[in-house]
């Protein structure tokens, strides 16, 4: 949050962001002579002056333009404003002493915040509260980082609390976040719509009646997910911390507040319950896990079914049989892109299927033309998949393509319009996966306990992962054991009924062999529990991991490279605690609820694309399925005495232009 320039166009969300901090300070009971540090244009100083126990308010800021504006507009409410450089100790001392000190989003702009706090403490009489607010930069940028050019300090809440309490002693802490719920307003109550900041900030703002209802376990606000933090010292005596909970609200359109339903496909909003078939590769347990999460969440909106398939014609025939025999709106989603490409673009086998099954080609073509067809890609298509035009043909027949990393967005963006591609991932239930027993990371006397992603996966572990355990992970541990390192591998098979968190809380680090560019569930579960991970190079891991964890994304899957990473953690145990803290701060990025909303929006966008080109798709399928049906029966299309062997390819070129 930066200084709010009240001379710019009014924004209710910006007004609520800034006033929420000052409304909280107002509720803390400022008294006597009040200092508002870095007051900006003075709207908060004006709010503090309205408190009954306040005798004088002094707002200080280094910006002459802001002080000039505040002085000309707001002095009627008793504040006085001064131009002060907070880095200059003598300028603060000239102001005298204050009973209440308020510092809203100031300390991150100061090179030495602890020194500023110490100078402010010398001016504080302790007759009223000392209030500070700090932004949660790690939520937006990662630990120790900030893309805000004005922020000189970007630590976590723990960092800010530590240096603040070293100066001021123990304080009471509060987390700031967005609010959700419902409000009631008079029909003609929006009389200030279109007003300026100046008129609204200078006017009297009265609180409204509000009830705060409890959160559920999975929506509980955690420190890592807060937008900002408020610290209070010497607050109003006898008040409980909960009595200071405040909110600054503005009425919003209902579409703002209920995104889940409104992000659903139009067919769902109209009361239909479309069929949603999720086709997963039988050899990919991670795909099945993600499909299960989606189907569980969407069960009230869709008639869902998970179908295990491969790329052989017998398995794909089962897909076409479902398509031909279903009725009503239908979504077909493939977690195997090769399977989807073969289904929607290779029609020779489809003609043979119609011949063998007795299904009329026009019936199959009609249902294919009516279906919303999407796919999910977690790897690049190999170069030997066919010519560029054939690849483009298959991809452009899809109504939507989900990809698992920004690296894949660049790859498929060369063959598809950007609006057809959506970045999608899975997630984990953060309510079931909480950091526990974190003190183990600071115990340097114990062996380094190494876990394996296959143990977290339970009984669905793929054969490929088991091979990596025997040929990669165990040899790497054996390598550093021979060097005298104290390392223990804990690879016990986790029973399906045992909570994942019970296994993870016994580990110091989890090795996560990731298949392709899909972030594995074990990796997300480990991060949610605050467990450091060693991952193999994948675009999704690079997108989601913090800067410290990225140092442990291996560029190649070799015993030597893994042994090097384990050796680093063994000899530098402090890295474990740093990695754990970074993962705890970033765990909200893996929230399952947020990811599932993105999946719902993905299906909605695909349905809209499908509706725009449904007629073209229907005529395309009608032509090519009929043509392949004739070819399967040995019938040749003859034009002017010549066989048209390339008829399907010519149809591809014709309709590809129409689809685009």
Give structural notes.
The chain is α/β, with parallel strands linked by helices and about 650 residues long. It folds into three domains: about 240 residues, 3-Layer(aba) Sandwich (Rossmann fold); about 230 residues, Rossmann fold; about 150 residues, Glycogen Phosphorylase B (Rossmann fold, 3-Layer(aba) Sandwich). The chain is about 45% helix and about 15% strand. The chain has 29 helices and 20 strands. It has a seven-stranded mixed β-sheet with strand order 3-2-1-4-5-7-6, with helices on both faces. A six-stranded parallel β-sheet has the order 9-8-10-11-12-13, with helices on both faces. Helix 2 links the parallel strand 1 and strand 2. Helix 5 packs parallel to helix 7, helix 14 packs across helix 17 and helix 20 crosses helix 25. It starts with 11 loop residues before the first helix and ends with a helix.
Strands, helices and their partners?
Layout: H1 12-27, E1 32-37, H2 43-49, E2 54-61, H3 64-74, E3 80-83, H4 89-93, E4 100-104, H5 113-123, E5 130-135, H6 137-141, H7 157-168, E6 172-176, H8 197-202, E7 228-233, H9 254-257, H10 259-262, H11 266-269, E8 275-281, H12 285-298, E9 303-309, H13 313-325, E10 330-334, H14 337-345, H15 348-357, H16 361-370, E11 372-377, H17 388-396, E12 400-403, H18 406-412, E13 421-423, E14 448-452, H19 453-456, H20 463-481, E15 487-490, H21 500-504, E16 509-512, H22 521-528, E17 533-536, H23 539-544, H24 547-550, E18 553-554, H25 559-571, H26 574-586, H27 592-612, H28 614-632, E19 638-639, E20 642-643, H29 647-659
Parallel strand pairs: 1-2, 1-4, 2-3, 4-5, 8-9, 8-10, 10-11, 11-12, 12-13, 14-15, 14-16, 16-17, 17-18
Antiparallel strand pairs: 5-7, 6-7, 19-20
Helix pairs in contact: 1-2, 5-7, 12-27, 14-17, 15-28, 16-28, 17-29, 20-25, 28-29
């Amino acid at each position: 949050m930066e200084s709010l320039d009240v001379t710019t166009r009014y924004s209710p969300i910006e007004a609520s962001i800034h006033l929420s901090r000052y409304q909280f300070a107002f509720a803390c009971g400022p008294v006597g002579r009040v200092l508002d540090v870095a007051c900006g244009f003075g709207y908060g100083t004006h709010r503090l002056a309205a408190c009954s126990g306040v005798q004088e308010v002094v707002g200080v800021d280094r910006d002459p333009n802001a002080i000039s504006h505040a002085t000309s507009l707001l002095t009627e409410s008793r504040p006085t404003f001064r131009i002060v450089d907070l880095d200059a100790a003598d300028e603060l001392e000239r102001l005298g002493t204050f009973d209440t000190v308020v510092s809203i989003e100031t300390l991150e702009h100061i090179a030495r915040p602890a020194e500023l706090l110490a100078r402010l403490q010398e001016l504080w009489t302790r007759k009223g509260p000392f209030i500070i607010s700090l932004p949660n930069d790690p939520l937006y940028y990662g630990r120790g980082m900030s893309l805000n050019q004005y922020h000189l300090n970007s630590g976590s809440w723990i960092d800010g609390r530590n240096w603040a309490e070293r100066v001021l002693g123990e304080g009471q802490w509060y987390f700031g976040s967005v609010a959700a719920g419902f409000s009631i307003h008079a029909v003609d109550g929006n009389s200030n719509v279109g007003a300026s900041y100046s008129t609204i900030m200078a006017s009297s703002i009265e609180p409204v009646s509000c009830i705060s209802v409890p959160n559920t376990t999975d929506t509980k606000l955690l420190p890592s997910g807060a937008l900002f933090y408020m610290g209070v010292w010497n607050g109003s005596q006898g008040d409980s911390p909960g009595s200071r909970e405040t909110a600054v609200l503005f009425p919003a359109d209902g579409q703002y507040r209920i995104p889940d339903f409104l992000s659903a496909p139009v067919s769902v909003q109209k009361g239909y319950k479309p069929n949603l078939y999720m086709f997963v590769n039988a050899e990919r347990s991670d795909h099945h896990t993600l499909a299960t999460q989606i189907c569980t969440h969407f069960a009230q909106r869709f008639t869902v079914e998970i179908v295990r398939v491969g790329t052989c014609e017998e398995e794909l025939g089962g897909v076409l049989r479902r398509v031909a025999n279903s009725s009503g709106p239908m979504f077909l989603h493939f977690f195997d892109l090769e399977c989807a490409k073969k289904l929607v673009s290779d029609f020779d086998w489809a003609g043979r299927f119609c011949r063998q099954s007795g299904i009329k080609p026009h019936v199959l073509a009609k249902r294919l033309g009516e279906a919303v067809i999407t796919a999910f890609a977690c790897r690049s298509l190999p170069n030997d998949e066919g010519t560029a035009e054939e690849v483009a043909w298959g991809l452009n027949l899809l109504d939507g393509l989900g990809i698992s990393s920004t690296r894949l967005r660049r790859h498929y963006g060369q063959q598809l319009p950007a609006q057809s591609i959506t970045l999608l991932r899975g997630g984990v239930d953060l309510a079931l996966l909480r950091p526990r027993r974190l003190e183990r990371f600071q115990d340097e006397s114990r062996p380094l306990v190494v876990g394996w992603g296959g143990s977290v996966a339970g009984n669905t572990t793929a054969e490929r992962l088991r091979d990596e355990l025997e040929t990669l992970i165990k040899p790497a541990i054996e390598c550093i054991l021979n060097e005298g390192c104290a390392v223990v591998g804990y690879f016990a098979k986790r029973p399906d009924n045992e909570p994942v968190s019970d296994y993870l809380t016994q580990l110091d680090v989890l090795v996560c062999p990731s298949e392709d560019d899909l972030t594995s569930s074990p990796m997300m579960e480990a991060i949610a529990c605050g467990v450091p991970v060693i991952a193999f190079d994948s675009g999704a891991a690079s997108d989601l991991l913090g800067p410290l964890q990225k140092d442990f994304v291996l560029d190649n899957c070799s015993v030597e490279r893994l042994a090097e990473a384990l050796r680093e953690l063994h000899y530098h145990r402090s890295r474990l605690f740093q990695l754990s803290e970074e993962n705890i701060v970033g765990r909200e990025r893996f929230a399952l609820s947020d990811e599932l909303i993105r999946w719902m929006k993905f299906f909605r966008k695909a349905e809209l694309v499908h509706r725009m080109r449904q007629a073209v798709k229907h005529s395309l399928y009608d032509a090519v399925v009929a043509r392949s049906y004739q070819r399967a029966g040995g019938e040749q299309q003859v034009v002017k005495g010549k066989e048209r062997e390339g008829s399907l390819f010519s149809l591809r070129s014709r309709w590809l232009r129409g689809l685009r």
